[in-house]
Write a structure and sequence with these properties.
Number of strands: 15
CATH superfamily of the largest domain: 4-hydroxy-3-methylbut-2-enyl diphosphate reductase, catalytic domain
Number of helices: 14
Structural class: alpha/beta
Strand order of the largest sheet: 1-2-15-11-12
Order of helices and strands: HHEEHEHEHEHEHEHEHHEHEHEHEEEEH
Distance between the termini: 55 Å
CATH topology of the largest domain: Cobalt-precorrin-4 Transmethylase, domain 1
CATH class of the largest domain: Alpha Beta
Strand content: 15-25%
Length: about 400
Amino acid sequence: MSSSSKRINLRTPHVMLEVQAKIEEHYRSSLVEKIRTQGGFFSYGQTKIYLAKQFGFCYGVERAIDLAYAARKVFPNERLFLVGEIIHNPEVNAQIAALGIQNLLEGDASIAIDSLRPEDVVILPAFGTEISMLERIKAQGSCIVDTTCGDVMSVWKRVKQNALEEVTSIIHGKASHEETKATASRALIGGKAHYLIVLNLEETNYVAQYLIQGGDRHEFLKKFEGAFSEGFDPDVHLTSLGVANQTTMLRAETEEVQQCLRSAIEQRDGHTKNFRFFDTICGATQERQEALLDLLKRPLDFLLVVGGYNSSNTTHLAEIGEKRLPTYFIRNQTCLESRTILRHFDLHARQEVVFNKSWMIKQPHESIAIGITAGASCPNNLIEEVMMRFLELRGIILTKENSTA
């Protein structure tokens, strides 16, 4: 099948009926849905569990997974490839691999792309992909299934406009993240524009001071190595700025990035004509952050954040939680090894560590209240498994009879 073939509609009623049945089997949880309809609260004896009002799969993630499953249904005999991971959740990615969909970026990506055939099907992930990668795949003539999230494409639209008007895009995000790389590639359209990626407020403040006072060009370029476009010069390309962001960043931090750079431009120029920004934080990301802040108003002993360790939006939920109370960022229920041993991702050490003490704080007969939330790439079945494991460690075996307690 060549790239000029007619467009295939994967989401037909017949295809989606079977797809939804498989997704229900793999990812859904009737228990979690029941608890959500009951206000997100579950109690049994002295144990109380509060779920955030918003957590887990967002629409963009659900759509990406739907399309991956649908692609296998519609193309049962073709080779299917995925550009990286469909989303940042190891359990979901394992299920996708089990469908026979190969990760195009495992091993030597260049060789893999050159070996693509017109009859192959290539799935673009929810984060999107860089323009150079997309063009190489198109050149092979393979059929492309694009699952890129609409919120991500909204950011691309903004940075493309910046590029066409030769405005440098300041991207608040992680330079190594697939989404940020994809966005940065769109900030170069037209060939005369540039981008600079800032990770946090510390880096933003550095840029702001450079805007106002100038500074050491070589020091600037060394500090941001790997986070700016080829040929970028801070003494030339910081005249007009447009702020964009990776859609899964902390909303409050992105707003501070905007305000900091706007203030610096105003102080430098006496006006803000050379500054622009757009609200491009993903709606689902914002909802989950706000729901967690609301959850943290409850009297909790600790918080469990469930999701893939390389998930940006999940990481930010853990950051929010640890500022308020003991917070454990876990991949799944296996991290709850025993009443005294818990494995969790340490945000500061940037690795999984073992917490080897009485992490559950209290004995089964004592009252305890915990909160649970999850990133937009975490399926409900993992939340259920975490709940069941926690209850088991409290001496509670959940059955159909007591699951509504």
